[in-house]
Amino acid sequence: ISDQKPLGCWSVKHGQILTCPVVCNFETHEFIAVHDDKVLRIWKNEDINLDKAFKATLSADVHRIHSLPNGGPVVLFRGGGVRTLDVLLEAPQQDIESVISDEAIRWSEAFMEDQQAVIIFVTEKDGDFFVYVQKPKLNNLHRYRLEPQELSQPLSFTAYIKNQTVTLLCLYSNDSVYQVLIPLQQDAEEEEQILPKSLLLNLSVSGNVLKGTSLVVLDKDHVAVLGSLAASGKEPKECLTIWNTKFQTLQTSKELPLGTSGQLWCYEEKFFLTHGKVLTVIMYKCETSSLAAAVGKLKTNQTPDVSSFVNWNTLEDEELVVSFQSQESVALKSESRMNLRSRRNSVAKVQPETLSVGQLLLNLKDAPTNVLEDELRQLMSKAQTPDLQATIGSVVTALTNRCKTNPKYYPQDFLVQIVQTRDLSYSLCPDLMAVALKKKDVHLLQICLERFPDIPEDITYACLKAFLSVSEAHLQNTDVNLESVICYIDVQLDNKEVKTEIVENGFNAELDQDMCDTKTPKQAQSKSAVESCPVGPYRAALLNAIIHSAYSETFLLPHLKNLPARQAILFLRYLYYLYVKCSEKVNTTLPGVRSPTINQIMDWMCLLLDAHFTVMVMLPEAKELLSNLHKFVRAQVRFYSELNKIEGSLRELQRLNHLRDSQTYSIEVLEII
């Protein structure tokens, strides 16, 4: 998630449907999926084709697979039967008992208690809700009836186990959270019990009611609720809220203007929720709850340093990091974070020198330009090591916000200095490259491409388009780093390239005469065109930064299809030039710093051809380029094919060289058969 790159992608055949969430087996590092209710698939990360993965057809429909870090996967069937994956794989067609009748499973979860897996699931039948607690290895099952609530139904469940007691939290439609306690030590023969519930929390904010849709537990004193806050006379607004259940207080909240799916997940101290079309990940940390922290949260306008709040900066582009607390946070990449902390000391008056970074940036929002930059430089110099990255990200965000509000303001030197000397990432300052693109600051874009590991593919494409469309006159007036091209493009004083003779490994145009048409004058000219770089050194250096950048083909290809045809041809000509240059060298490596590798060049050529092949076939100016590229690749294949034929002889020569005494002189004649 931090690098915004997919690590793997698998799909089922057309007509097949994944019927429960895919999980990871922590013990074997395998993925487990179920499609069409009964077909189990197991595969590893290096497997490519899902259809060739392990397959087992089960005898009953699967509801959910739960994977426990120390207990292995557990399979819950729709009939309420439970099996560990190991037992199930021993006999996939074994009969699965049905422990529920005409009931639908509404929620389930798995836990480890005393080194035993415990499965808890809630079912519904005709408006009544039942709770099942099962230990599959002990074949121990208990069924309870949930105490009904008049004129209200449960919407979401969450649970945790402590001291042999299950604490089940239920979010009801009457905007309240109830608590149910279930002891794990029960006699197996007891009759069905009715579980009483107690009111834990009323979801009311300043007289306005939160209509919750999803609930997760953070620890014994904190819960998170996702829902809509409806104010009188206003449209409901979706928000994520954190509540202190011990003191019945709202700890913090945040509006989600782009909307959510209504679902909230929590795993390893991270929230996962969809905000618009984006998956948002928010880290949190809960410490021991105290009355000072709970009451102090209600007085944040007067005492902003009572507790640490959520850094919601990734949710709204325009928002400053108003919740960043100095000396209390960890720099993160592409992740928000939240701290629910307690303060044992009494609330003190906030002094100017103890202002948080967020508060300081808010104070500087309308400051004069020279004051703003001076204060930001001082802020960076004073930042503590644990907070350094996040502080620098906040500084860049403040500068880019000023650039957007004041089009005439653009501190290029200051921004370049920050990016060159600090360890930043795209996610820490997501607006920086957008502002640089608007200002056509190709120098800053080049540095960002070289230093940021997590640039989204749409920004990479925007940079490529800008580099191909910017004029040569503009490029010659910029400070572009030429280290990646200076060793293989000879630059004259007029900034034009010197044509160099190309000696291509294994390529001889005469050998292709029998397979190609007789050369025309245009074809003769195309030969010389290959010998010189089709772009100037400045543009070549910028394109090298693009070629070096990390990307996912799946996400980049749709954007590349929008690249104008003539720009695509120009880029392909340059890639072809690099490909020929690499082939000159025995080790197929270009000289210079951060020069493109042969694999990167070939990958980009394939991407461009995939995105524009139909258009290039139709364009007359691309025909010669495609023909030359085809001939060169064919000659390379032929050359390496000939090398393979004498591979055995070359190995024998290498062996003889090791046996030969280096102190003596000899002449040997070897016959290659």
**Count of individual helical segments:** 17
Structural class of the secondary structure composition? alpha+beta
Largest sheet: 5 strands, mixed
Helix percent reads: 25-40%
Description:
The chain has 673 residues and is of the alpha+beta class. It is 31% helix and 25% strand. The chain has 17 helices and 26 strands. It has a five-stranded mixed β-sheet, with no helix packed on it. The chain has a five-stranded antiparallel β-sheet with strand order 17-18-19-20-21. The chain has a five-stranded mixed β-sheet with strand order 22-23-24-26-25, with no helix packed on it. The relative contact order is 0.05.
Summary keywords:
673 residues; alpha+beta; 25% strand
Write the layout of secondary structure elements.
Elements: E1 18-25, E2 30-35, E3 39-44, E4 54-57, E5 62-68, E6 72-77, E7 82-84, H1 85-90, E8 104-113, E9 116-125, E10 128-135, E11 140-146, E12 154-162, E13 165-172, E14 176-183, E15 193-195, E16 198-202, E17 204-205, E18 208-219, E19 222-230, E20 237-244, E21 249-255, E22 265-266, E23 270-275, E24 278-286, H2 291-297, E25 310-311, E26 336-340, H3 357-363, H4 369-382, H5 388-405, H6 412-421, H7 432-439, H8 442-451, H9 457-469, H10 472-476, H11 521-531, H12 537-548, H13 553-560, H14 565-584, H15 598-618, H16 620-645, H17 647-659
Parallel strand pairs: 11-15, 24-26
Antiparallel strand pairs: 1-2, 2-3, 3-4, 5-6, 6-7, 8-9, 9-10, 10-11, 12-13, 13-14, 14-16, 17-18, 18-19, 19-20, 20-21, 22-23, 23-24, 25-26
Helix pairs in contact: 4-5, 6-8, 8-12, 9-12, 9-13, 13-15, 14-15, 14-16
